[in-house]
Design goal:
By secondary structure, the chain is an alpha+beta fold. It has 2 domains: 99 residues, no CATH class; 111 residues, 2-Layer Sandwich (CRO Repressor). Helices cover 43% and strands 13% of the residues. The chain is built from 8 helices and 7 strands, in the order αααααββααββαβββ. The chain starts with 5 loop residues before the first helix and ends in an 8-residue tail after the last strand.
Length: 228
């Protein structure tokens, strides 16, 4: 620490009096952020879509610099706020009027599970690992894929689940590690198995490839009911 000036380390090149200006700037910009988010409507405070995240980043950047950079004025930041919020309102209006425009800006919901099995083509398009998805399902007390009729990843990144009623639950791929990690190409207990990759269930008595995804790893299927 020798040779380092404490004043320079803590304040930079600004005088101590600039701290009061920072305080005032921060209060002003905080009020502008609050006003901008309030103006954007209730959608702006729900789980964020990609477009809404861009808006928040833009507002944050516009607000941050005037708070502590002396040479950055507040009026240019206010103009940025007005433009960003105006664009948000315009794009939101266009998205509500034209579905293709909404899908272009925010994407569209994607099926991850259909009828208790992975929708492989759609799942592979998403930047979502199988382990991460299994964890999302376990949080909602899902023990195996046979309990889930459909799973959809929304444009916000949230996952919507439609469960089977108890009487309709099917045997499915177990999601908890103590069972799933027993997956193997060898068949030690002939019977109903689930493909470890796509969740397809078949009677398997000897090593074979899955009829859906052509993979070779299997796990004994289970048919427990979902506990709520």
């Amino acid at each position: 620490m020798q040779g380092i000036e404490i004043k320079s380390l803590l304040l930079g090149d600004e005088p101590l009096s600039f701290l009061l200006e920072v305080l005032l700037r921060s209060v002003i910009m905080f009020c502008f952020i609050l006003t901008a988010l309030r103006t954007s409507g209730k959608r702006g405070i729900k789980q964020l879509s990609i477009f809404e995240l861009v808006i928040i980043i833009g507002l944050g950047s516009a607000a941050g610099d005037p708070m502590f950079y002396k040479d950055v004025g507040i009026i240019p930041a206010v103009i940025v706020f007005i433009v960003v919020v105006g664009l948000y309102r315009a794009v939101t209006w266009l998205s509500g009027k034209y579905l293709p425009f909404e899908q272009l800006i925010e994407g569209k919901p994607i099926y991850l599970i259909r009828n208790g099995k992975f929708s492989i083509e759609d799942f592979d398009k998403e930047d979502l690992s199988q382990d991460e998805f299994f964890a999302e399902l376990r949080i909602t007390n899902v023990e195996h894929l046979g309990q889930v009729r459909n799973a959809i990843i929304e444009t916000s990144g949230a996952i919507s689940l439609l469960y089977y009623e108890d009487k309709d639950v099917k045997p499915g791929l177990p999601l908890y590690p103590d069972l799933y990690l027993k997956k193997s190409v060898e068949i030690y207990h002939p019977g109903l198995h689930a493909c470890a990759y796509c969740g397809n269930t078949e009677e398997v008595n000897e090593p074979k490839t899955c009829s859906v995804c052509k993979r070779k790893e299997w796990v004994l299927a289970i048919k427990t009911l979902r506990r709520t």
